[in-house]
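Hi there,

I know you've been waiting on this one. I reran it after we fixed the sequence typo, so this is the corrected version. Both the input and the resulting structure follow.
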Amino acid sequence: MRINLKQRELILSLVEDLNRYFPDIKFFDVTESPENPNDLWINVSRPEDDDREMELTDFFSEKAADILMDYGYHMLVMPIR
């Protein structure tokens, strides 16, 4: 998987936001989407609480939409177990 400098910068920003706003959630790694290798998944731990997972999803879906509109990169924060 090849990540360019801007993608790396955007991923680091997402991880910083994760650490700031969701300290109970841990970052694991970045992988290509199995459906489209141009899409990146930022894999994080899944919250135990369903409401907390919705907060996480809502927060990062807005950021992912901004990244797609501003830079053309499709990135998703993916909670996994």
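Quick highlight: DSSP finds two helices and three strands in the chain.

Best,
R. S.
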